[in-house]
Amino acid sequence: MKTISILGSTGSIGTQALEVVEKNKDKFSIYALSCGNNTELFKEQIQKFRPKKVSVKTKEAALELEKEFPKLEVLHGAEGLIEIAQDGINNQILVALSGFAGLYPTLAAINAKIDIALANKETLVTAGDIVMQRVKMQGINLLPVDSEHSAIHQCLCGHSFSKIRKLIITASGGPFREWGIEDIKNATCSQALAHPKWNMGKKITIDSATLMNKGLEVIEAHHLFGVDYDNIDVVVHPQSIVHSAVEYIDGSVIAQMGLPSMHIPIQYALLPERTEGIKTGSFDFVKVQNLTFEAPNLEKFPCLRLAYEAGRQGGTCPAVLNGANEEAVMAFLDDKIKLNDIARLTEDALSIHKKIQTPTLSDVIDADSEAREFVRSRI
Predict the structure, then answer these.
(1) 199: pLDDT confidence band, cut at 50, 70 and 90?
(2) Beta-strand pair 253-257/242-248
């Protein structure tokens, strides 16, 4: 039995991960869970999965849980996440936290030599060189949960990274794929949150609407698989059947396909073998019929261009990209800015940043803070 902890168990990835665990009760033991603000759902998860430890966002929420579950060890704040992540009882940590907050517990788990299932793009976007260097040094497994990176990981099984010619990352195109530029500028929050294919948290859904999510995935893929940015392509594929592909130096292209379901990449990261999963229906080529592909429109979706530029510049630039975007997305969700302001503010933050080419972790944190402060000052 594998002992795992899930950081962010009440979010979209976390709840689906618990469904995978429930489907495979004989293979998993839940040691610890964490949540942000959804304490009511969290209480239901505690009653059902009986973790030994939990962590919540605030001390007040922790006190409330202690009263209801007096035998449960309750932690809170960033320190609680780190304590869970570095606990040696774990065989694996699923990091399903949103945003920059995922970096610290990920590093804590790496330092404790605990395997990681990573569903937090920002960790590798902001500090990819540092994280991957430590992963290699500690000899642990870091397995991607994103459907695109899981697809690439599966396509690479049995093949050498040195034989890769190109990675092909697919994108659904989001809710605005067929919209005009002026219409996108005036898109409402509810329109941006209406993703046509995937059920995700608010932040990642807005990133999908701007294609920043795909840009972050390009940077993440660069670090996970050691492929140059010039050899990572993004292709818009509205049907979301081909989840990504790898082209090898002999011209062969291997793609991972399936009906849209996050249960599949989650299960493969937690249990990297072919085993009975949560039913998504059997794939039928005849019913699917048409699979279409198109190039992304960088004029309509400048966030993807910005991500490539920041990734190629390297150093602290990706941390600025991520911090500025994250802050701008929160402002959009609060109706303080328009959708197109996300790209504008992010580009402005990058333009004034003085890059550090080989940053320390402290430099990355400073770059993130600088970008956030800049965006806040412009709203």
Answers:
(1) low
(2) antiparallel
DSSP letter (8 states) at residue 255: E
- CB atoms under 10 Å from CB of 277, counted, come to 17
Quote the CA–CA distance of 46 and 44 in Å, as a whole number: 5
Give the whole-number percent of the chain exceeding pLDDT 70. Answer: 98
Residue that is written with structure tokens 């493969």 in the block: 268
First-to-last CA distance in the chain? Answer: 50
- Whole-prediction pTM value? 0.93
pLDDT, tens digit, 9 for 90 and up, residues 203-221: 889 999 999 999 999 999 9
- Strand ranges inside the chain, DSSP E: 2-7, 28-34, 53-56, 73-76, 92-95, 115-118, 142-144, 164-171, 232-236, 242-248, 253-257
Q: Estimate the share of the chain in helix, then strand, then coil, as percent rounded to the nearest 5.
A: 50, 15, 35
Over residues 288-309, the pLDDT tens digits come to: 889 999 999 999 999 999 999 9
For the purposes of burial, counting CB atoms within 10 Å of the CB of 249, is it exposed (0-12), middle (13-18) or buried (19 or more)?
Answer: exposed
Sorted by sequence, the CB contacts under 8 Å of residue 97 that are 6+ apart come out as 7, 8, 11, 34, 81, 105, 120
CA pair distance 142, 138, nearest whole angstrom = 11
d(CA 357, CA 42): 41
Q: What span, in angstroms and rounded, lies between the C-alpha atoms of 303 and 344? A: 9
The predicted pLDDT at position 198 comes to 65
pLDDT of residue 278 exceeding 80, the answer is no
CA atoms within 13 A on the CB side of 182: 0
